[in-house]
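User: For my dataset I need records formatted as: sequence, then structure tokens, nothing else. Please produce one.
Assistant:
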Amino acid sequence: MSTRSTSPIGRLLAATCLVVVGVSAVLSTALLPTTGQGDDLAAVETFAAHSDRVDAALVAEIFVVLLGASTALTALLAFARSPRLSAVAGWLGIISGSAWIGLISTDDVRAAAAETDHAAGATLMHHLSGSAQFQAFVLLSLVGGLVSMMCLGIALWRSRAVPRWAAALFVVYEPVNFAGGGGGVVGTIANVILLVGFAACAITILRRGLPALDGATDPATTPPVVSTPAPARSVS
């Protein structure tokens, strides 16, 4: 049986991390103007035409750095009853979340290009998106994120750590996000799904805490060791 070892402050920090990531994902997707695919010059000009929205979205995107940590924290809820799937979800969540930071940095490049030479900025974006490093970020983010969220949803479903409707949200999140191309109305709906799933997990963490990992001991729950006295030796 797993023990709940999280302190009240730890519960609050973990729950806050989940909610902040969900809210920032919704805000950034809702605020960023839709740029389409393939036309870098049009994307830069769109950013220039909506500079206030772009600036607000870039502030919201700062908190996306917590995505990997949020996925790992959520995976801990199911670790006791589904350790393998939870481990895959947690580790891939950290990896794909880190790669996602590299992808969203293109928004900063577009925003900077919108304030200078649009044509030169579009050329820079073209070379950046075609680089091997950027393509690796895309692969790690998309494939890693898909597998991570699928494993996370299944692990939560099996463990019943959260209501099953909440577990199902993580399974459908990435397919909906892919359908919307990560932006626009459909992309915003996908991030609302993620926010609701994280919020349900945050409530569970606040109520029950996080389970201790294997090998962790809680002095308050560890039974005392009772020594058995040795039998007295008879003296002849």
